[in-house]
Backbone:
């Protein structure tokens, strides 16, 4: 797929914009939605002013790859990614939609982030350091950062419109959405993680953790939004894995490290990124897609 100019924000005046998130622009299409992954990048909960070329294409193509691989395990909300099959007037904006968008069924979303963790990392590591547990699940003493857990954990989070999602115990999820649905989400999340982990391992990649969103379409529980992308998951090169600290990762760590190095106070306005950081980050996203799918963008 050919590289195009970065897309920071869609501009489709004939289409009704429903929502603009940190990365995605979502448009109404009757009883369906068109989801567009832009090249925006957020760090420390702020959208940066500098787009990352092809980032939106990587996120969309990675999601499409996984939805296909997981189709027999969990249904999803995808209708098509062929722009010619979108309702009017969307095909007129092919230049903004090609390769980075999906036409999907509207889903009644469940207001829970379904997180699966196979390793002690990120907020899970911070939680463990503080409480020797993750999401209220007790763990053995003496674990190091990035250690593999004896079995994957379901560590749900409340969805935040701005700022970080917050880890919540399973009991809180059951109270919020009902015990039967909470158990169903836990079982499905861990089953998807297990399938994806085994596949990623066959590609020389460790899937340390990931998060999913689910909703209902016509009464059927479906996987929605993005799936197993570098924005929603921690992917580590297996050959470089060494517990006891942070791991090399296929994500925006270059950006985080740069922002730390310039001592940005994590308050608006977010600083622009220099060309070499943009290039390194774009390359890492494309590398993630190739490593997982075996395809070039």
Residues:
């Amino acid at each position: 797929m050919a590289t195009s100019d970065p897309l920071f924000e869609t501009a489709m005046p004939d289409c009704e914009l429903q929502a603009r998130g940190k990365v995605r622009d979502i448009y109404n299409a009757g009883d369906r939605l068109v989801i567009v992954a832009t090249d925006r990048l957020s760090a420390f909960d702020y959208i940066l002013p500098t787009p990352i070329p092809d980032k939106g294409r990587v996120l969309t193509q990675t999601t499409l790859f996984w939805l296909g691989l997981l189709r027999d395990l969990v249904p999803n909300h995808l209708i098509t990614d062929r722009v010619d099959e979108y309702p009017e007037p969307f095909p007129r904006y092919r230049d903004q939609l090609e390769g980075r968008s999906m036409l999907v069924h509207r889903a009644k979303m469940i207001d829970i982030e379904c997180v699966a963790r196979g390793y002690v990392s990120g907020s899970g590591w911070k939680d463990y350091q503080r409480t020797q547990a993750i999401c209220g699940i007790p763990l053995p003493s003496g674990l190091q950062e990035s250690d593999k857990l004896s079995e994957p954990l379901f560590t749900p989070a409340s969805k935040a419109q701005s700022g970080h999602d917050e880890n919540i115990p399973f009991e809180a999820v059951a109270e919020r959405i009902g015990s039967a649905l909470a158990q169903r989400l836990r079982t499905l999340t861990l089953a998807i993680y297990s399938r994806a982990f085994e596949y990623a391992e066959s590609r020389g990649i460790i899937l340390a953790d990931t998060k999913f969103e689910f909703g209902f379409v016509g009464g059927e529980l479906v996987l929605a939004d993005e799936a197993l992308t570098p924005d929603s998951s921690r992917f580590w090169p297996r050959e470089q894995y060494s517990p006891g600290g942070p791991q090399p990762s296929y994500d925006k760590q270059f950006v985080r490290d740069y922002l730390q190095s310039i001592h940005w106070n994590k308050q608006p306005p977010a600083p622009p990124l220099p060309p070499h950081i943009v290039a390194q980050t774009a390359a890492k996203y494309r590398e993630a897609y190739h490593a997982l799918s075996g395809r070039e963008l």
In short: The mean pLDDT is 94. The helical segments are 55-69, 94-97, 123-131, 170-177, 179-202, 253-261, 275-293.
